[in-house]
Amino acid sequence: MAGDRRGRLSTPLSKAVGPKTAEALEKLGPRTTGELLRYYPRRYGDRGKLTDLAHLRLDEHVTVIARVAKNGGVRPMRNRNGAILNVTITDGRAELQLTFFGKRTGPLQGHEKRLRPGTTGMFTGTVSAYRGSRQLTHPDYETFEDLDDEFEAVQKIDWPVPIYPASAAIASWRIATAVRTVLGAQQAPDVPEPLPAAYRETHHLVGALPALQLVHEPHSTTDIARAHLRLRHEEAFVLQTALAQRRSAMLAQPATARPARAGGIRDAFDARLPFTLTAGQREVGDVLEDELARPLPMQRLLQGEVGSGKTVVALRAMLQVVDAGGQAALLAPTEVLAQQHLRTITALLGPLAEAGMLGGAEEATRVTLLTGSLGATARRKALAAAASGEAGIVIGTHALLSENVQFADLGLVVIDEQHRFGVEQRDALRAKADGTPHLLVMTATPIPRTVAMTSFGDLETSTLSELPAGRAGVETVVVPASKPAWIQRVWQRIREEVDAGGRAYVVCPRISATEAEQGTEDADLLDDLPDTGDLVATGGEPAPARPALAAVEDVAALLRQERALEGVTVGEMHGRLSTEAKDAAMAAFAGGAAPVLVSTTVIEVGVDVPEATVMVILDADRFGLSQLHQLRGRIGRGAKPGVCLAVTTAEPGSRAIERVEAFAGTTDGFRLAELDLEQRREGDILGAAQAGRGSSLRLLRVTKDLDIIADARAAARELVARDPALTTEPDLAEVLAESLDEETAEYLQRF
Ligand code: ADP
Ligand code: MG
């Protein structure tokens, strides 16, 4: 590998900028000179443009640009010993108080002198309230005069002011000083250039060192744009190279070919399918059939609209592998889903799943379930069935990943609802095969192309966009929680559906009233607090007090008292129930004994009860768009149309209501996934592997940089195909080794 070239910028910060600064910086992330150079300003201020002070939020750590309006002078405190200095700063309209305390007047006089009225500068501190006005107590500040004296640069007056994510321990301008120390150290730092020269030329990109100089010390907004363009390309290119390498390394591993066999279990299965496959299912099926027949590991992502019938597609691939003498493992994210897969797959297979049993078909195999909650005996049996090869299909949860699970001949790994599993888990399961097994990953929701190219960049993608014919569809209505008559109508509506033989889900964000919202199992509730923590405050509405969120236990109790639902049994479902209780609740719901199910989002993924026609989502604004779409996908699966009632307390005009309305406005999963993406932060999308300290993605936005990602991907694949070890691009190899976090690096080094 890069060996001796590694770590040109790995000088510990304590050596470069002194221990005290280094310690404060380390708390923010950077530990080495290289990491500091990658710690980019979050924004740029403009000396001529003062920060809007009217919208600062209490308790927020802020950095503002403002002008001193009044200086009250140092005076002794009336009731206590010591002295106080009050200074007022302004943006021209709103004001902010600065308060300094001292034991004696002496130390405060420096502040009094520096903060003359009319002086502008940057001020940083935590906003507090005192007698009705906002203030910063003991703010750290730097006047522009101080800064200019220090760097003797009069022309700096027009330069954008870099504003770094800062903390109480180290102010933004001290970070700027530290960066300048590293950038300007005796000689310019030896920054690696991971972008091939030809790529830079094609895209008119500045070099690695100039880009860092421009991003940290721009003289104009054009400088910032040039730096950002280059750095985004760099991030995209480095990541795409890692993915391309991963992909090519995987393809270099031999895999057992599992060609289709005429007259085998798959053919028998096709013959007994109660419906005809959609054109899309057939098309994807053909692709999978071909890839499984090759002696190279298939690496495919199957994404599809909710309800598009991915399970059948996966099952047919599994049966092809069984026909070729191998086994298939199906990994599901929850017990509920694993159980359901077992039920549907056994039902679809019928006698084909009864090998060795009376009435079992000749080509038959066995299907085994392996989850964490199995009893000891059942578990032993399941382990034996997997290890002996008796079970052609093993369905399970995380328990499948545990060490003592062994397969006789694992030929295919299918991962359902990939968004809940990381790369490490994918690999853990694949490691259970002797060679490299084929891999089919399925996503619960459609994912935007950019995400497919970043998060799943090492996989080939297939898409099922068509729904099986005969689906009546779902109508979605937004119901304001503030209107009791509407809510009453919701319960009546459930009654009507139940009377007509239907089932209704009632989804709540929480299990019980006492439990914290985050505790809700499986609910990745959207965190919609603006993250202005250490930014220059940009304003924003104060968060309104929220009414308590709907909880499963309360709502179930309420519905049991509800007149409109008299005589209707109401079930409950959530992650804290025992496996038996979950099974019982699901069975009672599916069978119609308890046709109303109050649940958390455990039913979000994949649960399939065709009779379900109504879904009420309480506090709908608390869920992300993709999640809402997933939930809604649980209804309208049969011949009867579904109705989804999204109940919300969100105010008209708020972002939350916009989200719910967007959800009600379309059933196009791809559109919703894109909207969802726009509202999430990148870290949520790319997962921990790319969001940590060694993160390689800082400026790249998967929402906006589609073109950059696509260009970088094409170029990276081409490069890796030509030069897999990157011998012609040693700097790129070095950056890859450095910038990927340890876990990922470890992974890449396995090849
Ligand atoms: P998803 O893609 O969301 O995982 P499923 O695989 O659960 O969807 O399929 C949803 C439902 O559609 C299941 O009940 C399945 O049996 C049914 N189904 C699948 N393919 C077809 C088809 N070609 N025609 C009719 N129904 C189908
Ligand atoms: Mg599914």
UniProtKB/TrEMBL annotation:
Which residue numbers delimit the Helicase ATP-binding domain? 291-464
Domain of life, per UniProt, equals Bacteria
Q: Name one GO biological process term.
A: DNA repair
Gene Ontology molecular-function annotations: ATP binding; DNA binding; DNA helicase activity; hydrolase activity
What sequence ranges are listed for the domain Helicase C-terminal? 524-678
Q: Does the keyword Nucleotide-binding apply?
A: yes
What would be one Pfam family of this protein?
RecG_wedge
Q: Which InterPro entries match?
A: DEAD/DEAH_box_helicase_dom, Helicase_ATP-bd, Helicase_C-like, NA-bd_OB-fold, P-loop_NTPase, RecG/Mfd, RecG_dom3_C, RecG_wedge
Q: Which UniProt keywords apply?
A: ATP-binding, DNA damage, DNA repair, DNA-binding, Helicase, Hydrolase, Nucleotide-binding
Name of the protein this chain belongs to: Probable DNA 3'-5' helicase RecG
**Phylogenetic classification of the source organism:** Bacteria, Bacillati, Actinomycetota, Actinomycetes, Micrococcales
